[in-house]
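Re-running the complex after MR caught last week's input typo. The corrected sequence lines follow. Everything else is unchanged.
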Amino acid sequence: MTIIRSTAAELAAGIAEGRYSAEEVTKAFLDRIAAVDEKVHAFLHVDAEGALATARAVDADRAAGKPLGPLAGVPIAVKDIVVTKGMPTTAASKMLENWIPPYDATIVTRIKAARMPILGKTNLDEFAMGSSTEYSAFGATRNPWDLKRIPGGSGGGSAAAVAAGMAPLAIGTDTGGSIRQPGAVTGTVGGKPTYGANSRYGLIAFSSSLDTPGPVARTMLDAALLHEVIAGHDPLDSTSIPQDPAPVVAAAREGLTGDLSGVKLGVVTQFAAGEGAEPGVIAAYQTGVEALAKLGADIVEVSCPHFEYALPAYYLIAPSECSSNLARFDSVRYGLRVGDDGVRSLEEVMAATREAGFGQEVKRRIMLGTYALSSGYVDEFYGQAQKVRTLITRDFEAAFNEVDALISPTTPFTAFEFGARTADPYQMYLADLYTIPSNLSGGPAVSVPVGLSDGLPAGLQVMAPTLRDDVAYRVGAALESTQEPRLSDQIPDVADKEL
Amino acid sequence: MTAATLQSYEDVISRYEPVIGLETHVELGTRTKMFCGCATAFGAEPNTQVCPVCLGLPGALPVANAAAIEATIRIGLALNCSIADWCRFARKNYFYPDMPKNFQTSQYDEPLCEDGWIEVDVDGEVVRIEIERVHLEEDTGKSLHVGGATGRIHGATESLVDYNRAGIPLVEIVTKPVVGTGAKAPEVARAYVTELREVIRSLNVSDVRMEQGSLRCDVNTSLNLPGQEWGTRTETKNVNSLRSVERAVRSEILRQAPLLDAGERIVQETRHFHEDTGKSTAGRSKETATDYRYFPEPDLAPMAPDPDWVAKLKADLPELPRTRRRRLQAAWGLSDHDMASMQNAGAVDAIEATIAAGAKAEGARKWWMGELSRRANEAEVELSDLAITPVQVAQLQTLVDAGTLNDKLARQVIDGVLAGEGDPEAVAEARGLAIVSDTGALTKAVDDAIAANPDVAEKVRGGTHAAAGVLIGAVMKTTKGQADAKTVRQLILDRLS
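Corrected-run output:
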């Protein structure tokens, strides 16, 4: 249990100092997966052999006296929407069942270069569309805190894997909150980097202008360490920013000293009202705000008048882009093919395949996006949404003239029970109410565990200016330093809980 | 008059005004594809020049090819367009098995170049064609239908897709509607495409070969009554030669007129041109056309060409073909007609280079427009594909001018050069081809000929000099054509005087 309860930073140090081998570490997490994942279902694919081979190579390097990177030998789980060469990548869709990519995403190349054993691929809402991981074509993931409840989405698999001690670190992707919202409801740390700071090359695209890969971890420092492994300019991604990544590890260490004097934090007026939010979530958030004030932060109210239009704008932009991005799944070159009997036409086979291969939420968004982009409506819907996006970006810019960072609850409610919101898509969409503005502006944000509401984790979100990821990490780490014990250290013993 | 009645072109044109418009696609000759590093070589084994990006595999992202952007801007500048200071790619969404992502990365309301013009010469008249836009996009793959008799999809048992061409940079050049050309509309269309091809060739950005599809043309045609609104246009696709561009306009004018006469409506549709029959058949109707759902491509950073760089590209443009043609025509003292036929033969470059290599203008023109054009035609290749260089032609002409070769021997030297035997001088030497002007050897041949033809010799002695031809022929035969005919004639006359 010591290994799986250790942070990534501790594991890296332990391996470097020879207190344990990378193989032992990897084996401990593989054992934990074997013990509890049957109940949690965080993984869609486990690659024990591959992970152990990498771990042994790290051990061999250490024995040979070669220098090891900051996370060498620390295992990681990767959201199954990030392509991995030779390892199945399904995006939790029947459309890609059994698809094995011939190439690695850039962030996977970087993870491999950092010598981190890849434990396997984690579950998600199909094509990252959802806020509960209930839309996975291969079955939902359960929240380790309460197996009757959702682990958040779309990165529920990555968050649950880290929360349940099956992986010290995981990769998520955040389009509207899919790293931060699962982090909040599973008591883990989730970071959405500045859009363009981390390469999207090899991320199966949901909404190209919003998708951002980022770290899932138990602590801010761990998240920062992983952030620095995967961040940086990538010539294969034309939207990648040609600039060095923000110094988030140094910022997290600075935050952990617990001093925030001179830091000005803004509470978003529009979110402070907490409309539609659970009282317990608001209460947990308030304790977080008080803790930050005690560390010396100056807390002020800031108005972001256009944030209330973020949700509708997002639900036009993201489906529009997804309707185009998912057009390639047509049965012609790879993946599923249904109804090819030599009689049906190409169009009929394409239609039958898409009917059988896509789940309801994906279809809903494709239809919505197709409509929003269609001639005659494109200006009214897609065009208007882009204007709102500009206004929200300006709200952020104005706010950051006043304050160093903005804070809010990460989610309006804690983990709900399975099926509670699937009947009403709008109720599901509300889960990302607070996280979406950062996706629309492109700025960085992190979710830090802040407390419990009725025994379930709640998160506090820190939003920082574009390319100032370090500010978000510093504030998040400072908040984390006030918690004893950390929420994320309390790995719930899922093995004792009934299904 | 009914739709079935055959009408003469002249009759139609006397009553209707044609409006044409041309959309030309040019595959750029960049080393790599538009959005990835794959090679672009023509004719490679299917699906050997592909990668995750040009196959549109999940997760793959495009990165724009800077060389293609530069080439497009140069084309735009050569066509007198203004260059956008900021623009983006857009996605054009439609389903097509040849198209890996099921959207084409193209440009929509923000083209790289717009509002240009080009002048073309038609029968001594200058026609100005306005250019609407020049933009950059990616090509699609190619379907192959196997198992059927015709190679078409009907009757095929399998359809295979080759994605080697998918992602090759494609420049689309769109004219504004061309009006007021009357009966000459078909010639104007052809002259435009010819001129466009020359301009692009002069920029060295594409090999612009219509037969290989690196230049493809869609022709829009409509007819209206004088003074009335423009008619409904059709778009004729698959036009693969300059001749067909002209034929496509003409045949469409002849097809539409009887329908209009009969009070029928022209259906807005795409039509497919068939080279063999010179006719077109109906394709997709525009009324059921796809809603392309354009939107700005979020995977690509916008383009903002630096104005200083654009100014430099403009300053560095080569002399454009029409200007150059005018200059050469004046220098060579040629008629419009002669210049046009050189143009059509694709011989201007070669002739200019041959003159530059030291040949006289007349000699250079004679070889390229005569013997070499004939051989290119026989071999069904472009003049520029012949295995002989302008320098070699200049050397050949120098040998003729020096009296070392006559035309007949020179043609044999060309055989040798084309067969790869080396430069003209080396071929002449190796094959023993040179005019024999050694009078000793010739005197013997002349004496032999006189001895063998006493009757003819007698006639010549009697003053019938024309009869000497028979004796000259005989001498030529014994010297295998290598004697100088003038010298031989003089020798014969000397002997028989």
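None of the earlier attempt is carried over here. Residues 405 and 464 of chain A are 5 Å apart (CA to CA). The longest helix of chain A spans residues 379-402.
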